[in-house]
Amino acid sequence: MAIPFVDLKAQYHDVKDLIDSSIQEIFESGGYVLGKYNKSLEETVANKHGVEHAIAVNSGTDALRIGMQACDIQPGDEIITTAFTFVATVETIVQLGAVPVMVDINPDTFDIDISKIEAAITPRTKAIMPIHLFGQLAQVKEIKAIAEKHGLMVFEDSAQVIYAHHDGVYTGNWGKFAGISYYVTKNLGAAGDGGMILTNDDEVARRCISLRIHGMGRERYYYDEVGYTSRMAEIQAAVLAAKITKLDEWNVRRNEIAAQYNSALADSEIIAPATHDGNYHVWHQYTIRHPRRDDLMKYLGEQGIPSAIFYPVPLHLHEPYAQFANGEGSFPVTEQVSRECLSIPVNQHLSDEQVATIIHALKSFVGETSAV
Ligand SMILES: Cc1ncc(COP(=O)(O)O)c(C=O)c1O
Q1: Are residues 214 and 77 in the same domain?
Q2: Is 221 helix (H, G, I), strand (E, B) or coil?
Q3: Is the distance from the beta carbon of residue 111 to the nearest atom of ligand 1 less than 6 Å?
Q4: Range of the domain at 123
Q5: Ligand 1 centroid to 181 CA: how many Å?
Q6: What is this structure's pTM?
């Protein structure tokens, strides 16, 4: 049987009764927007993350853009982040007229290299935006300390880390706000787009709630600021509210699979990803590195094993974002990782046999032996 990279059908079947009954109820009631499923999803997420406010929006991209606007980011403000991310991180900064100041990353955890942050701070710097990539938090304690020392905000790009935490403190508590994505393929994915803003700041929350409906504030059809149309569809909230009942279990299984890869690759020529001490990783991706990455990808593909490259070209080498760096060579680690990284299947529905097949293929590519 083919090995799926993500198994959306299996996810559906894990919670089919819940999804089917809630969608039927939505159609019967006609409550399509900002109804009880939005509310219950927001409550579940806020409780689990231990944050004061969870505000459902239309996408992870909107969560970042609205969150930053609610934190008063203005044209010309600088935000320190990295080029090794999905475009939305940097795109939303630019859409607000702010300036992404990118720095290099750590090679084995793929997150911001904290030793590079202070040199990038200028009088215009307003925030540090770590990307919690592939399922684990960046070095949040150290980043928070740097931000506090310089009077900066921290914005968490938490698109890939729902339910991840550091020393028991979940994402959403390490900065002014966090933006989560519920895009289809995320650990918790909608049947389309969806996102969530997490914050402990009452004023930021108030503005986010208003901004997601055109800046409509205290009264209907009275506008406090220029906003967006970014409600989460009730159908998406219902799908997410159903799937979230399984998320802890699914993340545990992802950890089991990652542990099998970690032990198989411990002494391998293929470089396994690392986990920062104190992090609970939710393994959105399991990303390995090898200098002959393209050959490895082809080799796996020939054996029916899917893989994916996140991200093949770092953002500073794309035309719209080139102005924010100095071309090739700006971020040597980022550029090398982009050439060498490969994400292999780590979805919770893989069997141990499928995982062993993947391990065997990886090892045989580099001439090493494995149990299968
Ligand atoms: C790191 C990161 N930031 C932001 C986003 C944007 O989320 P969405 O696709 O829900 O708009 C994503 C989604 O893939 C992401 O991976």
Answers
A1: yes
A2: coil
A3: no
A4: 8-103+111-245
A5: 5
A6: 0.97
